Amino acid sequence: MTFILGLTGSIGMGKSATAGFFREAGVPVHDADASVHALYAGAAAAPIEAAFPGTTRLGLVDREALGKIVLADGAALKRLEAIVHPLVRQAETDFVRKCMAAGAALIVLDVPLLLETGGDRRCDAVLVVSAPASVQKQRVLARAGMTEERFEAILAKQLPDSKKRARAHWVLDTSQGFDAARRGVQDVVRACAGRIGSAATQR
Fold first, then answer.
1. Structural domain tally of the chain?
2. Is the same domain home to 145 and 78?
3. For residue range 80-90, what is the model confidence (pLDDT) as tens digits?
């Protein structure tokens, strides 16, 4: 039996670092953002250029140019999602099948908009990473090219942190430092192993 854990959280909450701790623990992780990056340099580039002329250069999607269009236009964002989401979902499906075939007991799906898109239905449980709003804002605004306006636009497209936490099986506070987060991940891995064992016993 393979246990599928969804990992999600709002921007700046520490999801990428947390995914890294799962990898440290030997857990295979599918990174939806990394999948999008790969697609922007491959299969998604041509259809994106067709839908949004001038947003690719030398066959690669210019993320900044594309972002200026879709972040300010809900309809444009939906057109982009209609192109990208099916490709990301297929990459995720292929990853899960490969891991299952290899006998993985636990797989993590690292998806920024997991709850917003109903992706939690593909998971056995959900872990939400969280931090105080002040910490989140400080982290995000420290990123190159980030502005308060862009930060607020991104937040507007995500479920509020409180609602994400309410729907989670586990919540990991990432504001206490890397060591604490790493221990939290190890606790979740053990808890998932316990659930796998219980399910196997009941069969």
1. 2
2. no
3. 999 999 999 99
